[in-house]
Specification:
By secondary structure, the chain is mostly helical. It is built from seven helices and two strands.
Length: 181
């Protein structure tokens, strides 16, 4: 647990440490939502409906909800920090998967959207129940899951960067070939 505390010290202010049934985690409430939410959102992406304008806007709003709470314009407690962190995670993972998974998201229709948002809501409820009711084992599970969420963000950042470089290179080569013809 000590090495995970060191790892999270690089990405978390560790000010409002999340407490699970009396046991403090090595990261704050919001980061528990953010990193657990990142790991959960990867599973949620299996239900992800096709990216439409309303879906893009809604996930953008999930991320924008962090502004009033993250900058403390609105007073809030631990549970709101966890929920806003998790909503931000849902939005961020949705956007980070747009290019790498664009061919995979073929689910359409209201049923697919309802299943997706039902599972998203279930994830929020699950995390809140784990934090409120959990014990030592749950605290360790949440910390490890948060570390997996952090690794997920890092991996998706690398995949997106590699994809952008590949697209830019292909575009440059295509443009260069058309100029020489």
């Amino acid at each position: 647990m000590e090495s995970l505390a060191q790892l999270f010290s690089y990405v978390c202010g560790q000010v409002h440490l999340c407490v699970v049934n009396g046991e403090a985690l090595p990261l704050c409430d919001r980061c528990v939502g953010l990193y657990f939410g990142g790991a959960y959102a990867i599973l949620l992406s299996l239900l992800r409906p096709r990216a439409t304008a309303p879906m893009l806007w809604l996930h953008g709003l999930f991320m924008l909800a962090m502004i009033p709470f993250g900058f403390h314009f609105i007073q809030h407690g631990a549970l709101v920090r966890i929920i806003t962190g998790q909503l931000f995670a849902y939005g961020l993972i949705y956007y980070l998967l747009l290019v790498p998974a664009e061919d995979r998201s073929v689910r359409t229709g209201h049923r697919a959207t309802l299943e997706y948002f039902g599972a998203a809501l279930a994830g929020i409820v699950l995390l809140l129940v784990l934090v409120v009711r959990g014990g030592h084992l749950i605290a360790m599970l949440l910390t490890v899951t948060a570390a997996l969420g952090l690794a997920t963000y890092a991996l998706l950042a690398v995949v997106n960067l590699a994809t952008m470089v590949s697209i830019a290179t292909q575009s440059f080569l295509h443009h260069d070939r058309s100029k020489s013809s």
